Amino acid sequence: MWKRIYALFVARNLEFFRDRSSLAWSILLPILIIFVFAYAFSDENPEKFKVGLVGALPVDGAAAAFGATRFVNFIDFDEVATSLAKVERHQVDLLFEPATGRYWVNRTSPNGYIVEKLLIAAYAGSTERLERHLVEGDEIRYIDWVIPGVIAMNIMWGALFGIGYVIVRYRKFGVLKRLRATPVTALEFLSAQILSRLWVLLVVNFVIYIGMDWFVDFRMHGSYLNLFLVFTLGTINLICCGLVVAARISSEEVANGVLNLFSWPMMFLSGIWFSLEGAHPWMQNFALLLPLTHVTESAREIMIDGAGIVEIGDHLLILGVSSVVLLVLGARIFKWE
Question: Of all helices (H) and strands (E), which one includes residue 177?
Answer without folding.
Answer: helix 175-180
